[in-house]
Amino acid sequence: MATFLYRLGRLSFRRRWYFALIWVLLLVLAGAGAATASKSTNNDFSIPGTEAQQAFDLLEKRFPGNTEQNASARVVFKAPEGQKLTDPKNKAAVEKVVAELKRGPQVAMAVDPFQGQAVNKDQNIGYASAAYKVKSMDLTEDTRTELKDAAQHGRDAGLTVEVGGSVLQQMPEGGSEIIGIAVSALVLVITFGSLVAAGLPLLTAIIGVGIGVSSIAALAPVLDLSANTSTLAMMIGLAVGIDYALFIVSRYRAELAEGREREEAAGRAVGTAGSAVVFAGLTVVIALAGLAVVNIPMLTKMGMAAAGTVTIAVLIALSLIPALLGFAGKQVLPRKIRKNGPAVAAGDKPNMGTRWARVVLRRPVLVLAAGVIGLGAIAVPAASLELGLPDDGAASKSSTQRKAYDLLSEGFGPGFNGPLLNVVDLKDAKDPKAAAQKTHDTLAKLDNVVMVTPAQFNKAGDTATLLVIPKSKPTSTETEDLVHAIRGERAALASDTGAKVLVTGGTAMNIDVSQKLNDALLPYLALVVGLAFLLLIVVFRSILVPLKAALGFLLSVVAALGAVVAVFQWGWLGSLFGVEETGPIMSMMPIFMVGVVFGLAMDYEVFLVTRMREAYVHGERPGEAIVTGFRHGARVVTAAAVIMMSVFAGFIGSSEQMIKMIGFGLAIAVFFDAFVVRMAIVPAVLALLGKAAWWLPKWLDKALPNVDVEGEGLQKALAPSATATAGDPDGEREPVRV
Questions:
Q1: Whether the predicted pLDDT of 342 surpasses 60
Q2: Which of 160, 359, 401, 445 lies deepest, with the highest CB count within 10 Å?
Q3: So where does this one cross the membrane (predicted)?
Q4: CA distance 233 to 88
Q5: How many CB atoms are closer than 10 A to CB 474?
């Protein structure tokens, strides 16, 4: 592989205009596709194989047209202190607000609180329901403005008016990634000492993300991609795009410092660092694509889209970076080296990476113990992990949807915000109405039930719906117990009446999602870690190094989960990260973090340890190889980790709770993995293992393909022409071909 990539790097360097134009053309085509595609996105959440989804599917089949996922709004009113909504003045104000809602061109219907049981017993709190003709993402800004204006008119009349519902769902706000890019630029300038060298990784990462995100936008209507898919792809694409380019540019500068001409340096940089980029990218793709085993369509699509963006980042690093290096000339070098030559950079003073490696080699047991104990302590909160899906109760207390949520809890009880929709299949019932009534009476007798609404039948009379209002709030364990209790009555009801009860709704869906994700976590871990373990055996030609890499990852990801629980569930330092409301951790967070963090963790493992393996293969002792790896790789890996952390941390400022939590989780996980596991635990373990770290059974060594990531085969092939192209200042003359 190293030889093939060497040739690709030199070809791209020589034919720089062609390669640059190809990538620019791809960016233009992707942008054109995004610009002409429908702006509609799909935020429907389905979980095949669960009871909640089965109930929803049955509802969709037996009640056609009643389960469309169009936007809806719930406008909540509260009368002034000591007054009632039914007072003539207040009633007129409420009816005026509802009348304004009905006039909207995208509004299908609106029902005021007085046309049913939408006013509480004290008659001081009520709500109006509005249904729209389109999905929330297809609502015009005028429609949202009309809703806000109508609510404001109610407030002007002296009422408290707040709005909840899917009508408030909008595309995630952009701009937070700019912070990460700005920090990345600063780190790159400090690392390289050259604006040109710092600009190349940023430029190529932006091009890669532009192609990836534009492609997602173009395909969103066809593939039913959610609004958060592009945000995730942008988050991961920026991080890996900058890092992969950083490693190749850094290796290119090192090759120039050894006196090689530019084209030869570009070829060697892509052949060596590029090989590490390929395998690092492959581990990320495996981890993201592996999310498909969970069998949640939205999660699968998000993983595949992010994996596609990572693939683009790898291809750009291998082909566009050497082309841009050809355009950049010697401007990629610091001014001091351009002026005085590479000799001035080769001082005798050991760099920080060398000094740190020697410290670890002197005290490997102490460093190992400190790292493991420290991460273990941070991981303790993970034992209290509570999973759930965010609802308006997790929104900021200053938001109108949270205020609407609290008003409904005040007026109708905490469980009103999380009703349980029971779909009763009466197809096999001899007396459907009697069966539905029996079901109603049975559910009404269960603990933690405030009320059960009368059965509503479909036209065929073979299906009915019952709404159960719990006493407890949606995310409580009491509500979860009630869902299980209802399902526990199914067998007896089916035996007595022939009716089959299925529970669905947001709360039941949340419970089923959490269970499904918990069940899928171990198989997913086995698949992803197993495949990556085999891949790393091929890369490092060792058994213990990949094993150590996998165990280190598990330690860092559990510690990261502990930090997420401490901040978002317990509220520790919550104000520092903009967490206004604590609550359960998003159900998808653990398995999502496992996938993404594993891929990123293997990046640093490949980049850092490959350089150690390269030194060991070329004859250095195990301890010397560790020092060599840190001397050449620690500075760049540190910069790469800081860049990736800053990109992820930039998303902590998002108003979307899920994006905020993912940004924090990934940023803290990269910190733990890069600086504690890879920079401390890994060299300590390798120092203790010595030569055993690189042991591989002879039979396995012969059976495995030789991918030559460390470039040993390339070095042998280039040995006769190591000084080729001397005398050509632009590096344009072609040396001996490999």
A1: no
A2: 401
A3: 178-198, 205-223, 229-249, 270-294, 306-329, 365-383, 521-544, 551-573, 585-604, 636-655, 661-689
A4: 54
A5: 26
E-strand ranges in 358-499 read 387-388, 420-425, 449-452, 456-457, 463-470
d(CA 666, CA 300): 19
Reduce the DSSP state of residue 114 to 3 states and report it. coil
The DSSP code for 673 is: I
490-497 helix and 432-444 helix, angle to the nearest 10 degrees = 150
Contact 203, 339 (CB under 8 A): no
Which residue type does 10 have? R
- Kind plus residue range of the DSSP H or E element containing 488: helix 477-488
Q: Which residue has the higher pLDDT, 616 or 680?
A: 680
SS3 735: coil
Phi-psi region of 706 (alpha: psi -120 to 50; beta: other; left: phi over 0): beta
Average pLDDT of span 292-300: 84
Q: 21-27: which pairs have CB atoms within 8 A and are 24 or more residues apart?
A: 23/207, 23/211, 23/316, 23/319, 23/320, 24/207, 26/211, 27/207, 27/210, 27/211, 27/214
**What is the longest distance spanned by two Cα atoms in the chain?**
98
**Percent of the chain scoring above 70 in pLDDT:** 90
pLDDT at 725: 43
Q: Which residue type sits at 475?
A: T
189 contact partners, CB below 8 Å, separation of at least 6: 195, 198
User: Would you mind telling me the total number of residues written for the chain in this entry?
Assistant: 738
Pairing of strands 463-470, 449-452: antiparallel
* Residue whose token pair is 């709500």: 127
Distance CA 75, CA 59 (A): 26
Closest CA to 148 of 193, 100, 195, 77: 100
Q: Distance (Å, rounded) from C-alpha 417 to C-alpha 660?
A: 24
For residue 734, what pLDDT band results from cuts at 50, 70 and 90?
A: very low
Secondary structure, 3-state, 48-71: CCCHHHHHHHHHHHHCCCCCCCCC
Q: Is it the case that residue 17 has pLDDT exceeding 80?
A: yes
How far apart are the C-alpha atoms of 470 and 419, rounded to whole Å? 7
Site of tokens 């534009």 = 214
CA distance 693 to 686: 6
Distances from the Cα of 125 to the Cαs of 80, 82, 159, 380, 392, in angstroms?
Answer: 10, 12, 10, 43, 18
Burial of 504: CB neighbours in 10 Å, binned 0-12, 13-18, 19+: buried
Tokens, residue 65: 């047209």
Distance from C-alpha of 30 to C-alpha of 22, rounded to nearest angstrom: 12
User: Inter-axis angle of helices 682-689 and 544-564, to 10 degrees?
Assistant: 150
**Cα separation, 449 vs 457, whole angstroms:** 22
Contact of 424 with 499, CB cutoff 8 Å: yes
Do 499 and 422 contact (CB within 8 A), yes or no? no
Q: Determine the pLDDT at residue 323.
A: 94
pLDDT for res 730: 41
Cβ atoms of 586 and 390 closer than 8 Å: yes
Residue 569 is given by DSSP the state: I
Tokens of 261: 């001409």
For residue 346, name the pLDDT band (cuts at 50, 70, 90): very low
Strands (E), 6-124: 72-78, 107-111
Q: Please tell me the predicted confidence (pLDDT) of residue 338.
A: 64
> Which whole number is the average pLDDT over 334-355?
67
